[in-house]
Amino acid sequence: MTKFEIWEDASFLRNILTNLVGRGFMRMLLGSTERNEDVEALSLTSDGCSRNIALEEFAALPNLRFLRVRDIDIFCSFENLPSKLRWLSRQSWRTILRANNFHFSNLVMLDLSYSNIRDGWGGWSQMKMAPELKVLNLTSCHFLTTTPDFSALESLEILILEDCKNLEEIHPSIKDIKTLVSLNVSRCRRLKELPAGVGRMEELKELLLDHTTIKEIHISGDCLMKLETLSARGGSQLAQLPESMGSLMSLTKLDLSFTGIEELPESVGSLKKLETLDASNCALLSHIPDSIGHLTSLSLLNLSCCPKLAQLPYSIASLVSLQRLLLRECSSLTEISNSIGKLSSLAELDLKFTKIEELPESIEHLQNLRTLDIRDTKVTVLPGAIEMLAKLQLRVKKSPRETMPLKMSAPSILLPRQSMEKMKGEAGQRAADMETSDGDYTIAAVQNVVGIDDRAKQISDLLEMEVNDEVRILGIYGTDGIGKTTLAKAVYSRISSCFDGCCFLAEVEETAQNPHGIQFLRTKLKRDILGRDREDPSFDERLEFFQDIFREMKVLVVVDDVRKQSHLHAIVGKQLHWLGPGSRIIVTSKNEEILREYEPEKARTYMVSELDDGQAVELFRKHAFMMQSSTPDYDELANRIVNATEKLPLAVEVIGSFLRGKSIEEWEKIEKSMKLFTMSSGNATVGIEEIWYLCYRELDQHQKDIVLDIACFISGVDARVASYMWPVSSHPTSNCIWVPLARIGENNELQMHRLLRCFGKRILNQVGFGDRIPRKLYTQDMVQGTSDFTAEDFQSMPDMKFLKLDNAKVSGNFEGAFASLRWLCWQRFPLEFNAENLVLGELVILDLSWSKVTENWGGWSEIKMQKLKVLNLTGCSHLRTTPKYFSDYKNLEILILERCSRLEKLHPSIGHLKRLVSLNLTFCSQLNRLPAELGCLTALKELLIDGTSTREIPISIGNLKQLKILSGFKCSLLTHLPSSISSLTALSELSLEGSKITELPRSLGELLNLRRLSLRDCRYMQELPDSIGKMGRSLEELDISATSVCELPGSIRNLQKLRVLRMDYPFIRAFPAEIGHLTKLEELHASWCRSLKGAIPRDITRLDRLRSLTLEHSSISSLPSEISTLSSLQTLDLLHCNEIEVLPKLPSSLVCLRVSSERMKAIPLLENLKELEELCLSDEDPKERQPLSKLLMPESKVKQLFVWFSRLWNLQWLQTQRTELQCFSISFPKLRKL
Question: Distance between CA atoms of 1146 and 1119, rounded to whole angstroms?
Fold first, then answer.
């Protein structure tokens, strides 16, 4: 069957025929003998079935002017084609163009892109019959090796040869095309030179040479005078530009990014009309000529990522039109000339990742400067006059909230949407960060903590980490909101590496209130300590099964927010004998008696006090101004507001965040309200609840609704799902959810502090039925008390928007009962369905998880829910196939089938879900086949098939052009990927961990947006395709750990964006020779690579961004002496590298150093390691080499120290100066002084 479309443009066609599909229409239109003079445009597209078109069939269409034919055979003669045809588009990889007799006297546009035409195609000789041809499009004609003779095309203006990947030569006759305006040969990767005639063209305005292997550009004098755009982006072989390019008097855009040029010619200064000059990512560019100052029209100068560029010419001050100067990642750039102050038009200055130490004072003259980025530079002091720049946004921090507007001239309270990686696409756009005219923002996390270091040190002292033969338990007490949990988290993160296993049990009190809550916590405790996957079916959850194991382990457990002794005893026991020596338990609680029954010598307590005045003001400034320094106009007012609080951290965060970006008048209004609170209550200060309510009442009604929804219903729910609760049409008019009322956690879940949730529920209970809030009546208590409901039970709740039923039956006539319901959470319901007329017209979220629902459940057909966006069927173990009614849910965007353990098949009707964004099939262990209809889900952005029994991925997956995430973790039966995966042009994350895939498609390199590729535990994978190097502009993380790959392909050198390379456990024999080309690499992991031998190559010292180098249990023998130049290296792990005998001088930037070797001859020099926090030195060789009596450590930040050397039996003196030790273990029998 062939699909036909006919359409009209107001200026081109007169008639429109649409939605006419099938052979019947073809016979009617083309087979008719009657003339049809109204049809002027015709598009024919094959749907995959065979169909040949003879052009005699067009005889009845005399006025046809536009003809597009896709994937259809055309044969016979074109002589019968209407003479008025002006546009012919014929595209096909599969079929052959066998027509002849081109007589196109009026043809102006010929599109043969994506065709299989070859050099000897007969149509080339007939093109002379198109004297009026203006445009020739040969994009992606992959069989072309040389172009045809162009001499007859006297009127040609646009020639497109893009992505003709086998094209090696352009016919010299191109010089005869005097009218050519645009020439595009981008991505013709085999094209090494242009014909000389190109450089002599007089009308050419656009020349695109991107991603070719052209080595030089010929420009003849007084030619190319009209050229406006010259782009050679990605031309790695282009090493220099000719001096003659100064003759390009009309040039406005010059793109030389990612080329091999070493310097710009002096003649570049003659390009008076040049507006954009992009020379970014030119690794060899080291010199900018003084003549650049003559470019008076230049508005953008991009020199980012030019590591050899050490300075800019003074003449840059003459660029009076320059608006954007981008110098990011110019790692050799150490200073900016004071002349920069003359750039009166400059609006953006990007200096991130440079080595600049100070900014010139003249920066105060840049009155139009709006963005100054000095993140990750050495700038520590800002010029005082910078405060005069009222429009400036200064970026200085490494945190999610990086933009800090000075003078608070504009609201800056919320994060950009990009900071939430998982909130993508249409689903994410409806998230809690509802979009407004003010911009995009989201619920942000609080990371500013004041006074934490001193308190963490005090707790570490109480834990007596040096005592390794006993168990200790510590209670952290204090009122709500004082920071107990924050403090416990800080200590946990600092000392957890000292233990064999760790577990953090959060919000125990709330979890314990749920059915089986204590059992859930105990299971989590055991799994976390043992590092077991919760999906591991062999895991036995009985505590007695593990007691003998735990007695041999040194573990760390945090039990957060526990109120009752019975709950604490049920989790960790009254006696702590089941834990191994050296174990530590930390408990946070309001109950000061919580540890009363434990042995006093093993139990310690720590009372968290309120912040002192200085700490409270500092915390307030961090949240109100995003900085610690004073702000004169606000200082006195800030002090008064802080002093009016009880100085609880949570209270200070709330009021500070609320006031961020507001005017002095608004601050004074809040201060006045706080005074009224104190006067009415008779208290000297305002409590946390009053502060919360004061801020809450300032929100608009929609914001209040969202806050109460989170507090009462959906805290802990995936933010993407929760976002549908709030209609898109109800966008807020001002700042939405502000820090720290709510935030989004690491797993994308909505979070709200327990105390704030209590306040929200209290407000809900206090409001009378005359207000708006009861429309979302909180019915949880009622539902938990009963299991059977009738329609009459809900008659008094017509405006309810959220309903949660758990293990409940419903029956009766529900006509009109739930007209406003948007979220129905009906978990664990029985199989029977007895409801009638259940019309849920506004329902967008239906949660039926952990229920006995089957594919034949009556509710699928009886419940009417046309607006449904989210369907959650997690844990519905009775489902064997998905219901056939998916065609009724055409608006569905998120479908969750996670852990449907008996699901064997997806019903073909799933192909009707054209708006589906996310499909989650995780751990549907019986699902062994994905249907071809999956390819119909053209809006899909996330496909999760982790833990399924899928053996292959259908070829149709290539249709999912918007797919960004494809995860096949633990698909142990998956053996190969289809070649069509290369069509997933939007794919950014591909995870195949634990699959049986033996090789990747050679076309994998076409995934030009792929950022993360994980092949971990693909044990049958022996090599990577050479095409992986094509992903050099996108791939940031590559994991080949535990594969059989023994050598990386040479093309890895092209992975210019690679930040993380993991190759633990494989058979890699040597570092890749190209390692030095990975200049963006930050982490390199090669642990347990037993075959990795010899010296680390010297080229590794070119990786000036490397932060972590992990080589434990490898056979490397030495490090290069130049390793000390790696100024960003923070972690060096060489544990059990038994071939190492001596270490060179190490980078002073090291924070963590772990070294052990049986052949170690000398202790490494440590004097320069001023930033060191963790040090581990050891050997396991009993042979004494050189007795040592003294070990000196520098004045450092060491918090964790492990030193055991069997050879250092004479060590008597270990000296550490001004360290911050929190955890250490040493073993020297003769040590007398520490």
Answer: 10
Contacting residues for 601 by C-beta, under 8 A, at least 6 apart: none
- Predicted local confidence at residue 659, as pLDDT: 86
How confident is the model over 274-310, as pLDDT tens digits? Answer: 999 999 989 889 899 999 999 999 999 999 989 889 8
Token code pair at residue 318: 């003459």
Model pLDDT for residues 58-111, shown as the tens digit of each residue: 667 778 888 887 766 555 455 556 667 888 887 765 445 555 555 567 889 888
Per-residue pLDDT at 6: 35
What is the structure's pLDDT at 577?
Answer: 81
Burial grade of 879 (CB within 10 A; 0-12, 13-18, 19 or more): buried
Can you tell me the distance from the alpha carbon of 148 to that of 958, in angstroms, rounded to the nearest whole number? 33
- CA–CA gap between residue 856 and residue 870 (Å, rounded): 20
**452-607, CATH topology level:** Rossmann fold (3.40.50)
Give pLDDT tens digits for 1118-1163.
Answer: 999 899 999 999 999 998 888 888 889 999 999 888 888 888 777 6
In angstroms, the first-to-last Cα distance of the chain is 87
Give the span between the Cα atoms of 160 and 143, in whole angstroms: 15
Hunting for tokens 């100085």 — which residue is that?
Answer: 647
One-letter amino acid at 1115 equals S
Q: Which two tokens stand for residue 1017?
A: 């535990």
The closest alpha carbon to 397, from 413, 383, 376, belongs to 376
Least confident of 24-28, 80-84, 345-349, 440-444: 440-444
Strand 750-751, strand 743-744: pairing = antiparallel
Helix and strand counts by DSSP (H, E) for the chain: 19, 53
In whole angstroms, what is the distance from residue 1121 CA to residue 1142 CA? 11
Q: What is the dihedral of CA 811, 813, 815, 820, to 10 degrees?
A: -20
Q: What is the largest CA-CA distance in the chain?
A: 111
The runs of H, that is alpha helices, within 982-1073 are: none
Q: How far apart are CA 860 and CA 889, in angstroms?
A: 10
Question: Looking at residue 14, what is its pLDDT?
Answer: 34
d(CA 39, CA 4): 13
CA–CA distance, 1021 with 1039 (Å, rounded to integer): 12
Both tokens of 1160, joined, read 């170690």
- Is 982 in a helix, a strand, or coil? helix
Q: Beta-carbon neighbour count of residue 57 at 10 Å?
A: 16
Question: What class has domain 876-997?
Answer: alpha beta
Assign residue 1189 a region (left: φ > 0; alpha: ψ between -120 and 50; beta: otherwise): alpha
Length of the chain: 1234
Q: Taking phi first (over 0 means left), then psi (-120 to 50 degrees means alpha), and beta for anything else, what does residue 807 get? A: left
Which is nearest to 1173 in space by CA: 1152, 1189, 1204, 1192? Answer: 1152
The residue type of 363 is I
Separation CA 1108–CA 1083 (nearest Å):
5
Q: Which of 396, 762, 761, 459 is nearest to 588 (CA)?
A: 459
Give the count of alpha carbons within 13 A of 1007, CB side only. Answer: 29
10 Å CB burial of residue 1189 (0-12, 13-18, 19+) is: exposed
Q: What angle do CA 1227, 1231, 1234 make, to 5 degrees?
A: 95
Nearest to 298 by CA among 277, 268, 283: 277
CB-hemisphere CA count at 13 Å for 911?
13
Question: Cα separation of 107 and 110, whole Å?
Answer: 7
- Strand residues in 608-682 grouped as ranges (E): none
CA-based nearest residue to 23, from 61, 60, 62, 49: 49
pTM: predicted TM-score of the whole model, two decimal places = 0.59
Domains of the chain by residue range: 1-75, 452-607, 613-766, 779-868, 876-997
CA–CA distances in Å: residue 567 to residues 46, 476, 507, 564: 68, 16, 12, 5
